[in-house]
Amino acid sequence: MFAVTVRDHMMIAHSLRGETFGPAQRLHGATYVVDATFRRVALDADNIVIDIGRASDQLHALLAELSYRNLDEEDAFEGVNTSTEALAQVVADRLAERARAGALGEGAHELHSIAVTLRESHVASASYERPL
Amino acid sequence: MFAVTVRDHMMIAHSLRGETFGPAQRLHGATYVVDATFRRVALDADNIVIDIGRASDQLHALLAELSYRNLDEEDAFEGVNTSTEALAQVVADRLAERARAGALGEGAHELHSIAVTLRESHVASASYERPL
Amino acid sequence: MFAVTVRDHMMIAHSLRGETFGPAQRLHGATYVVDATFRRVALDADNIVIDIGRASDQLHALLAELSYRNLDEEDAFEGVNTSTEALAQVVADRLAERARAGALGEGAHELHSIAVTLRESHVASASYERPL
Amino acid sequence: MFAVTVRDHMMIAHSLRGETFGPAQRLHGATYVVDATFRRVALDADNIVIDIGRASDQLHALLAELSYRNLDEEDAFEGVNTSTEALAQVVADRLAERARAGALGEGAHELHSIAVTLRESHVASASYERPL
Amino acid sequence: MFAVTVRDHMMIAHSLRGETFGPAQRLHGATYVVDATFRRVALDADNIVIDIGRASDQLHALLAELSYRNLDEEDAFEGVNTSTEALAQVVADRLAERARAGALGEGAHELHSIAVTLRESHVASASYERPL
Amino acid sequence: MFAVTVRDHMMIAHSLRGETFGPAQRLHGATYVVDATFRRVALDADNIVIDIGRASDQLHALLAELSYRNLDEEDAFEGVNTSTEALAQVVADRLAERARAGALGEGAHELHSIAVTLRESHVASASYERPL
User: Fold this and answer.
1) pTM score, two decimals?
2) D25: nearest CA in chain A?
């Protein structure tokens, strides 16, 4: 199995609902350093999984839709706890949509799976992996 | 599959038995930067795998039982080569015990697996993954 | 010259005023991974600059006053652009106050200077250094 | 499952063929920071997956065969696009050959799989994993 | 003293002349992860050293002039050993030119100094610092 | 001012004397990831501060004298608290001796200063800088 990973980041404000979250129930924020991994069983005719430049561009465009925003006021997240793990799923699902729509190139239709990791600090991260 | 990872560290002295280990047969020591990863198929009612704060606290308490000690003189490791891989298993198994005992919250009973990586330097690490 | 550096982090929401900041004028947030460096010309009687445990505890307590908050609503920052560089100064000045008040131990009175770096992502950081 | 990872690097020149690669079609170069991971279901009699020192030495020797070279002029890569993913496979396959030849010790015959990751920058990497 | 640092990278081919360089006398290549640091005694009216977005854009544009090239064939480096330290100076000097030309904003005229670090691997880097 | 930094590591056991150190008064250990920085005002005839390969070899040889040892039983440290800061000075002083003895090449006589940082974990480090 082959994989390619590209990294970018987003900066958001949000709050989390539920006693579990303690002080994180207050409005605060986070930088998420995002690693998007694309897996494929075999390489394509160019000998790659996916073009790193194209993958970086698509990840950047996708994160720009979320970054510099207060997620508590975004329609897409109404009634949703925007935990790090939940946001990892959002990013992975949106990358999968872009792959299916052709934005990642023809070869992206051969992708096996996508994994997304969000690092919220030097000591904590969350990830989500899904088939394509 | 979702995952959450928290990081902490421990500082120990030990020696390793067997010609394989060369100079590491002498009493020496290590800082292990420890990444504990908790995996779960679906998120809980709070939209998380496990509370990051609680996971950090439990990992910290567990590592405090090992840190600032000479493992050669600990009863728990009598006759055991405390290699990085073996210590990764010790940490993972003790986290699993704490999860089963409820210390990681009710949701921890739904955990799929635990993986522990110990980084012993900037160029070497070992890990152990087990189901829960 | 000797130095000791300890690391911790804080997660905050804020917005920045001024056209310069583009999309960062919207309410958003950041994780700041904070490195606090304490410099001293000579070591103390224990052969250290400052106790690493004590420095970590004081940095953690100080960051807890800022973390999990919307800085736009904090009295301390009324009318202030809470840029990364400005927050680095806030952390350094508050550490200096704690040092002068004795919270970092007697030896802290011999400190030469304090430098604070805030990493806001994997590609950007800001710092402030001041004498003590 | 247990794993041990060792890190080293290589510095090479090459060019990539195909419009996909844009400016990377020109002769340029890269530092690849290489992580080689060895997996094994159970530990050996010394309580390890593989000796970290021996694994490091073999990885270093293998990378020395590739480093400080223009891959466009190496016979081994004639007609081959030396993408990061393709080079990850080359390193993994050559490690597997060394393992089978006994260079990684007797225990290496029990290895389950080898995974190799090549980090080409702070924002991009590729990897290849194979059974042994 | 305040500072802001932004990070980007470039990938180049080159060779080094002189017995000192051993195998690096052959045509090879490198990824340089570049940290550009801008220092200033006091903050500007926006409470910043320099706009991080603008600094990132200028660093990226500057590195694009060097990246994906064989430096041995660039007129700018004829007869010059393009060591990591020499390239750090090239990047710092070109940033200084851009600062003086106004590309980094009006505030850049108040910059005290620029420091550039090029990381060529996980174990080696070089830097150059100059007044502005 | 130019600088070159090389990285290596050592793994030692030791204990620290004095109530300040709490649990670190027990025999324990550490991995120190060591960054050695060599500064020079101007580059030499080869356009470098110091040969990176030679600097790495000397740092490695020097750390081998300390690594895989219990510092409490080394004559060189009798009656000395081997804090991270104190060990940074030991490494810097020994590098300076090697530089003066010619082991770092003729150009090393032009070095301005040496700085050594020891990272003892992902959250703490100490350093020492001295003229040459």
Assistant:
1) 0.98
2) A46
